[in-house]
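Anyone have tokens for Glucose-methanol-choline oxidoreductase N-terminal domain-containing protein? Sequence:
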Amino acid sequence: MDLSAFLRILLFCAYLPVTECLFLHQENVTDLILPSYDYIVVGGGIAGLVVANRLSEDPDVTVLILEAGEPQVYAGLVGHGWNPEYDWNITTAPQEFLDNRTRWYNLGHVVGGGSVLNGLVVTRGAKVEYDAWQALGNPGWGWRGLLPYFKKSETFVDDVDPDDASALHIQPDMSVHGTSGPLEVAYPKFFYNQSNSFLHGVSELGIPLLNDANAGVSAGAMIVPATISAQNQSRTDSRTAYLDRVLNRPNLHLASGQTVTRILVGTDGTAPIIVPPFGHLKRAHGVEVVAAAGAILSPVLLQVSGIGPAPILDELNVTVQVDLPGVGQNLQDHPMVEAFYNYTEPGLFSTRNLTGATLQEAEAEYFTNHTGPWTAPLISTTAFPSLRSLTSNWSTILRNISSSSAARYLPSGPGQHPAVLRGYAQQRQQLLRLLSRNDVGALEIMADSVGTLTIANHHPFSRGTVRALSSDILSHGSVASNLALDPRYCSQPEDCQVLVEGLLFNGRIIGTGAMQQLAPRPPAPWDATVAGPEPVNETALLEAVRGWLTTEFHPCGTTSMMPIELGGVVDPRLMVYGMQNLRVVDAGIIPLIPAAHLQAAVYAIAEKAADMIKEDHGASTSGSPPDTPSAWKPSPSNPADPPHSAGIPSGGKESPKQAN
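Reply: yep, here.
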């Protein structure tokens, strides 16, 4: 182990007396691990850390988190892009419905998961999108059932300067926000003037301006809050919110550097044993296992453990424990295209100005006052136009989709299983209904300060797959090399058509009076989206979409919460069908992707799951019924829990640029 890794471990454990939470690194895990645990959580990302935190509130139970990544001290440059040290470095299959090229598919490989790398955006989506989850056979998972858990997870602070709040239409509805949850959510202290121009521009096109991005209506334009501390404007994530605050709990153990290779399934449908790799930790026993490895890795883990489509398990030479055709099917994501319009107004201040002395001044202002451009995330301003607002062709698009065969656009193999087909047919009905409404966003447009208008289709009909390539997750040297990930972007052709409509809408935004003041000068091919003397070449735009399309990093649906006869993998209690003590708690259980960045939904899912697990074991749910969740409080044994990561200074230097 190199010295830097050793220092990181010392930093993480700096606050810990020997009687408190055990951090089990590879060198000490065999000596310190308990013979058995009440709960084993596989994955230390958003969902895993939330569940582990809440379950370990009961001092009479023991909880072990197994995480493949390490509790890194992540540098300020993390926001500039994906560091291989914190990433699983996965590549997709060639995208046959685009340009036959592969895409990088970044996933967090670090304690805290994607929450330490994401773009900070907090959006929930529309009420009716969660009601669609309930309509797909999941009682209690509609908006009313989830809103208490959105609130329970957050401490939402509205302290925007009154002048900024008035100009940017920031008037949050505090009745839908939490004020004492673990995760800090706030607005930045600095807004570029371009945000105002964008909001005025889309308003000229009839897009409503929303005072609150998270009050249950998604169609509109708004300033989005971020997972940042209102006090010091630094990133908050699942580690700082749900782990570092409870390091005093002796019943909570975290073993990092442990890639779980399979779950041993008992003959009675139990999953009491987890098997990680290498020679340090051979087996860990748990009364209940929670798979929280994310929408890409959890289904792979299930498959190599004998839970999944029988044909795939047979190919892997894995004994079929539970034949579940939906495991690894129904992969949904937001396909994204970055379009560049390059603001050239000479007096404009943007992130391009943050160089040399200006950068030093911004950095000094941040560390002195926690204000200024250093506090601005890459994206603060977004629009979610409904399909009706996006294009006059909306009814034709929906009619073309509804008239096509559901089976025609799904993958072969398990994707054609009757249960999977039935489930997709019902999803499609819900999507068609949602996209015909005025209050549901169809497309996201993210506006930065330099002239990038990134678009993403937020209600795609295409479905992808993920599967293991070997029964041994590490047989090819890494997890990334032992899985096949195929998002199948635009396998439903209308998904790409919606993105073309988004580019045309971008052109109309750029042509508004408010945006023309920024002097946009789009290069090819994006100049073709702006109205001119020649008709727009939509065929050329479609080719641009196919060449530029990539992921918005929002995979979900691969272990869907739906009835088993609809290809579901988990029931409404998130228990895997055919199992007695194995649940999945991560974005994979989402049956239908909402028009939102997914982190807020995953926090809420995990909060709700933790209460369900407690209820099923006869434990207290923090004294709070589902409609009135209790506030997070420091552990009574240590009221002065450290408010920030022991490994990350609270004012840690971080770039104003964040990864999407």
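Residues 418-435 form the longest helix (18 residues).
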